[in-house]
Specification:
This protein is of the alpha/beta class and 455 residues long. The chain folds into 2 domains: 3-51 and 385-439, Urease, subunit C, domain 1 (Roll); 54-372, Alpha-Beta Barrel (TIM Barrel). It is 31% helix and 23% strand. The strands form 4 sheets. Strands 1, 2, 3, 4, 5, 17, 18, 19 and 20 form a 9-stranded mixed sheet that branches. A 6-stranded parallel sheet has the order 11-12-13-14-15-16. A hairpin with a 4-residue loop joins strand 1 (3-11) and strand 2 (16-24). Helix 3 (133-143) packs parallel to helix 4 and helix 7 runs parallel beside helix 8 (244-255). It binds dihydropyrimidine-2,4(1H,3H)-dione (DUC) and zinc ion (ZN) (2 copies). Residues 58, 60, 314 line the site of one zinc ion.
């Protein structure tokens, strides 16, 4: 064997037990108690939890956005992922007018492949149907391993928005080829109306970012997307759900048996809209904005009861000087925050403190992402799967700071947050990429994950 991890408590979504895991050629070869085969490397995990690697299904690395490019390259973002126990990262390339899906993905892959420190996959944002040519390309995209397409129901002026007719066409075509339609739900017309009003009134602080995109502005778009998905029986994945009213509509559709899936992000679980009143409120500006306490409570309730399917980050950091562009005008703040290295520690800390079970944290951050997005080799500690493994010390106290993160950004909204328990080792396909605070991997080691469509 190449590696044996001994005596740890193995946590999958539906089971916890003490056993050894043996790894050969990047795969989990055997799980059992008292394994005594020879191995090049033996790790004693007594007192530790042994978890499947996290899968962050929502990141924007090196993304041109808000007049700049997000601060983490593929190298920095995936290095940080490794150090937070995330072993697969999904990025969102943006298809632009006149361009194809596979062409768009290949272009980003050429950037990502030499830099990736963990495995990676792509959803593709569709911004223009190119007179139907894009729909004709869905099958080729799926054959290429891209089994999910994202629609922005917002960012109209930026040229990213998809109208309702196009959304329905995408839902239908995606259904035909076994793909998922992901949506960013907010109502652009209401946002434009409020922005114009607040500008005219000279209300330009970060608080008015929230006030121009409050709960009901997100809820309308959530409900509209759910309505279209129900009408054509499509598979809909609502990214970064942040508001109670939209959440309830999506949960109701799920209860009725529709293929509606819900993602939320740690920033919506930890903070409330009050952060926008802070002096550094602009650093928390992301879209959709962080909502009020009622929404946060509803999100946690859905996490506990099983209605939310995944937690991912929407990792899209910008440097302080870029956030400062909007010091006196919230419309100039690039939208996005850091999170890739905090996702798994944050959710596992919630488990460690009794808010949810460790199994549920693993389900939200590893097993469900793998299942929903066709990563057949990933998501659980099972014989035959990739040996993407995290060793987690439940007793380790850790305080998040920009100083102990492994990204390229210069500040974090998570500064000072204390978590109980922390990953101490991360293996990607059996190779150690992180140990005790240090990145030990190599850029270019990460491999493209070719995903399998639902049929
Ligand atoms: N929202 C953000 O805050 N950043 C990137 C894209 C998005 O939709
Ligand atoms: Zn979004
Ligand atoms: Zn996003």
């Amino acid at each position: 064997m190449d590696l044996i991890i001994k005596n740890g408590t193995i946590i999958n979504a539906k089971e916890s037990y003490t056993a050894d895991i043996a790894v050969k050629d990047g795969k989990i070869a055997c799980i059992g108690t008292g394994l005594d085969m020879k191995a090049d490397q033996v790790v004693d995990a007594k007192g530790m939890l042994v978890l499947p690697g996290g899968i962050d299904v929502h990141t924007h690395l090196a993304m041109p956005f808000g007049g700049t490019v997000s601060a983490d390259s593929y190298l920095a973002g995936t290095r940080a992922a490794a150090c937070g126990g995330v072993t697969t990262v999904f990025d969102y390339p943006i298809q632009r007018k006149g361009r194809g899906i596979v062409e768009t993905v290949k272009e980003r892959m050429a950037m990502c492949d030499p830099e990736a420190c963990v495995d990676y996959a792509f959803h593709c944002c569709i911004t223009d149907l190119n007179e139907g040519a894009i729909l004709d390309e869905f099958q080729s995209a799926v054959d290429y391993g891209v089994t999910s397409f994202k629609c922005f129901l917002v960012y109209k002026k930026e040229g990213l928005m998809v109208d309702d007719g196009s959304l329905v066409k995408i839902l239908l075509k995606a259904k035909e080829v076994g793909a998922m339609t992901n949506i960013h739900a907010e109502n652009p017309d209401l946002i434009d109306m409020y922005v114009a009003q607040f500008k005219a009134e000279g209300k330009l602080s970060a608080w008015y970012h929230y006030m121009s995109r409050p709960e009901f502005v997100e809820a309308e778009a959530d409900k509209r997307a759910v309505h279209w998905a129900k009408s054509v029986d499509g598979s809909l994945y609502i990214v970064h759900m942040a508001d109670k009213e939209g959440l309830e509509a999506a949960l109701e559709a799920k209860r009725q048996g529709y293929n509606i899936y819900i993602e939320t992000c740690p920033q919506y679980l930890e903070f409330t809209s009050d952060v926008y009143k802070r002096e550094d409120g602009r650093n928390f500006v992301c879209s959709p904005p962080i909502k009020g306490q009622e929404s946060q409570d509803a999100l946690w309730e859905a996490i506990r009861l099983g209605g939310i399917d995944t937690v991912a980050t929407d990792h899209c950091p910008f440097q302080s000087f870029e956030k400062d562009w909007g010091k006196d005008d919230f419309t100039k703040i690039p939208n996005g925050c850091a999170g890739i290295e905090n996702l798994y520690p944050y959710m596992l800390s919630a488990a460690n403190q009794g808010k949810i079970s460790f199994n549920r944290a693993v389900e939200l951050c590893a097993e469900n992402p793998a299942k929903l997005f066709g990563c057949a080799e990933k998501g659980s500690l099972t014989v035959g799967k990739d040996a993407d493994i995290v060793i987690y010390d439940p007793k380790k106290d850790f305080t998040i700071s920009v100083e102990n993160m492994h990204s390229d950004y210069d500040h974090t909204i998570w500064e000072g947050k204390k978590v109980k328990g922390y990953p101490v080792k991360t293996f990607v396909r059996g190779t150690l990429v992180y140990a005790d605070g240090e990145f030990t991997g190599k850029p270019g080691f990460g491999k493209y994950v070719k995903r399998i469509p639902k049929k």
